[in-house]
Design goal:
With about 475 residues, this protein is mostly beta strands. Helix content is about 10%, strand content about 35%. The protein contains three helices and 35 strands. The strands form nine sheets. Strands 1, 2, 6, 29, 30 and 31 form a six-stranded mixed β-sheet that branches. The chain is globular. Belongs to the WD repeat coronin family. This is Coronin.
Length: about 475
């Protein structure tokens, strides 16, 4: 392990603060699946955890502040006929979640404003077309309602939901042609670049590939001689790829790559001899990297840079309880008053416990907004439509400020004023329900250029929506 000095870093005193049992989620029957996924996904409103279930597959959705003991009979999302393997919240809709399963389908669910009050069995959309279990799903980082799925039928597809049942993808990213069982088609990990124009994947042959997600063309392939990759991700802002895997001597490794040249790694480091898969998590705002192993009780924290030595060790957060998977809270859901820069949700299967773990940078004036810790970050508004992405357009994510009262102008023109009205109404709807207990801090103003008459229409629609929400929450 690297123990290089990091005295020049403002994050050198970062520490992990686990939540107490009263502020954790106790009594959650976490899935016993051995698939190498996170089994958990979080946003500022809800947390979703894949649960153990007989006769099908299910996951539980809890309001983010619904901590403490969870009722064993709490309603679940249980529309799959097979075990659920992955769940992901839509980055642009806090009430929309996708799930994939061993029943060969991907389903998209609408979660009610006040949470799941009864078993949810009917999905908004069902995406079919795979012939074997679907192991991975990933939302596009900038295009609205665009989802990538990877299955054990050696197919990788880009899907968009425009009707109730989707049979054909908008793009087939990878598909076997000549080989019967091509190991490069069975993916272990996928990661979109910052603007979604490139896709990095690891596969069964333990190599890294960089693809064009629109055409499926393979642009770069790594060698498997010195590093057998398991997980890969793009490090936004540093123009590097990071992978975790094992060395020829079965030591767990982290490796940095130039995404334009995968012939030789930029940096390699052996960590330990454990066997669990290392999950990497990267924060592009602070350039901090977190490594958490499946079955481990520790999380390592590093700081990355674009110059040598590229990576500096900061600290290690230890726990006696092993984690089966981890969820991550988006930056807009963090507590900026407590100088929280990252938050995990550790799935501790041996205790049926989901434990929040906050990474905090201590400051003297912790109640004051720290500008250097919270630069403009990825917001919850899409930068483009699926049709624009398919036509070849590339856009970075729309940014927002985490400072209360700060507004960030939309850098991209709206396709229509009505689209802005719908987005603003959706954001207001999610913030008004007291049963959720979470506030989505979206400070982007998308209505600045809307004519006065349309603005009045928006106000009237919001009044109607607020009255309906209050009535619904009172009934609940």
């Amino acid at each position: 392990m690297s123990w290089r000095s990091s005295f020049c870093s403002k994050f050198r005193h970062v520490f992990g603060k686990p939540a107490t049992k009263e502020h954790s989620y106790d009594g959650v029957p976490i899935t016993r699946s051995v698939h190498d996924n996170h089994y958990c996904s979080a946003n500022p409103c809800f947390i979703a955890v894949v649960t153990e279930c007989a006769g099908g597959g299910s996951f539980i959705v809890l309001p983010i502040h619904h901590t403490g003991r969870v009722d064993p009979q709490h309603p679940r999302v249980c529309g799959h006929n097979g075990r659920v393997l992955d769940v992901k919240w839509n980055p642009f809709d806090d009430h929309c979640i996708a799930s994939c399963s061993e029943d060969c389908t991907v389903k998209i669910w609408d979660i009610p404003v006040c949470g799941v009050q009864q078993n949810l069995t009917k999905a908004r959309k069902t995406l079919i077309g795979h012939s074997r279990r679907v192991g991975l799903i990933e939302w596009h980082p900038t295009a609205e309602n665009l989802l990538l799925s990877s299955a054990y039928d050696y197919k990788v597809r880009s899907l968009t939901g425009q009707c109730a049942v989707i049979r054909y993808p908008v793009r087939v990213v990878l598909m076997p042609i000549h080989c019967r069982y091509p190991s490069e088609m069975l993916l272990f990990s996928v990661s979109f670049s910052y603007d979604g124009s490139r896709l990095a994947v690891t596969s069964k042959d333990r190599r890294i590939r960089v693809l064009d997600p629109r055409t499926g063309k393979i642009l770069q392939v790594s060698s498997s001689k010195s590093h057998r990759a398991s997980k890969v991700l793009y490090t936004g802002g540093l123009k590097m790829l990071l992978s975790t895997g094992s060395s020829p001597w079965n030591h767990r490794q982290i490796v940095l790559w130039d995404p334009d040249d995968l012939s030789e790694p930029l940096y390699e480091e052996d960590l330990d001899g454990s066997a669990g898969v290392l999950f990497p998590f990267y924060d592009p705002d602070t350039h901090m990297l977190y490594l958490a192993g499946k079955g481990d009780g520790n999380i390592r924290c590093y700081e990355l840079s674009a110059e040598k030595p590229y990576i500096n060790f900061l600290m290690e957060c230890r726990s006696p309880l092993p984690q089966k998977g981890l969820g991550v809270m988006p930056k807009r859901g963090l507590d900026v008053n407590a100088c929280e820069v990252f938050r995990f949700y550790r799935l501790i299967a041996v205790k049926d416990l989901v434990e929040p773990l906050s990474m905090i940078v201590p400051r003297k004036d912790s109640g004051i907004f720290q500008e250097d810790l919270y630069p403009l970050t990825t917001g919850n508004q899409a930068a483009m439509t699926v049709q624009e992405w398919l036509s070849g357009m590339n856009r970075g994510p729309m940014l927002m400020s985490l400072k209360p009262g700060t507004e960030v102008t939309n850098p991209y023109p709206e396709t229509s004023a009505e689209k802005g009205v719908v987005r603003q109404l959706s954001s207001s709807r999610f913030q008004m329900c007291p049963a959720v207990g979470a506030v989505t801090r979206s400070n982007m103003v998308l209505m600045e250029e809307v004519e006065h008459s349309k603005w009045l229409l928006f106000l009237e629609l919001r009044k109607i929506m607020n009255s309906n929400l209050e009535l619904a929450c009172n009934i609940q």
